[in-house]
Amino acid sequence: MLSHRRAGRAVPALDRREAEGRSHIAVSAHDRMVEGLVEVPGDELGMLALELGIIGRHLFVALVVMAIVTSMLSGPLIRRTLSRPKGHQLESLLSSKLFIPNLQAETSLEAIRELAALAAHQLRIDAGIIEKIAWDREQIAATGIGNGVAIPHARMPDLAEPKVVVGVSDAGVPFDAPDGQPAHVIFLLLTPKADTIAQLEISANISRLFRDPRLVERIERTQNFTEFLAVLKFESKRLSLAAG
Predict the structure, then answer these.
(1) Taking CA 172 as the corner, what is the angle to CA 166 and CA 175, rounded to the nearest 5 degrees?
(2) I want to staple 120 with a disulfide (CB 3.0 to 4.6 A). Which of 114, 127, 185, 235 is the partner?
(3) Which residues are the active-site residues?
(4) Is 20 exposed, middle or buried (CB count within 10 Å of its CB: 0-12, 13-18, 19+)?
(5) What are the tens digits of pLDDT across the range 139-152?
(6) Which of 194, 119, 109 is nearest to 143 (CA)?
(7) Beta strands 149-150 and 183-192, pairing class
(8) For residues 206 and 225, what is the distance between their CA atoms, to the nearest angstrom?
(9) 0.70 cut: is pTM over it?
(10) Hey, what domains does the chain have and what are their CATH numbers?
(11) Helix (H) or strand (E) holding 99
(12) 47 pLDDT above the threshold of 80
């Protein structure tokens, strides 16, 4: 049969099949859009939905306005995120001029004083100020983190960028660590007072590196700054590869 009766007039079978096909396309497009599977750019997707009658003209205009506003708001945020500098990495802050391979201190105060004296000489900062700020902080909360490491620190008012002074002690220096062990590697962190993040980033980096207590043993076997830095870089690379 080539035609069907509807509302008093004949409808060719071909037209009926075409109408059913369009209806099927509209339903299929609607289902795929709801599921987020339509691979069509946002503006073309909106036009397609409008043409198929899935949305009305008022909703279409609202979607376009929302897309424009979202783009205007998210653009600057994305640019700021992409342009944000990477966090401070310990290896890039170390220097042979701020390294003591045979720390002589026997107490935490002596260790801070010895490291502060070297920092003052190299950075032209008053050693007394460094010692006072770091020691005051030490008395509030001890900076021994365990596994033979201590991280005393001072936020300096006139410092332009973070500096790290390192001392290695064969005998070990008590820093009231949670595990009760003395510190054999002591990092004195000096950071700008206005930078509230640097100290946390560097401390976290050190804590991550020294999770393995055997790292301190390897550092104690080093003879100079070059060997010390090589051990740290090797451990840092190993952890990065392990993290995937």
Answers:
(1) 80
(2) 127
(3) 153
(4) exposed
(5) 999 999 999 999 99
(6) 109
(7) parallel
(8) 17
(9) no
(10) 3-83 (no CATH), 90-243 (3.40.930.10)
(11) strand 99-100
(12) no
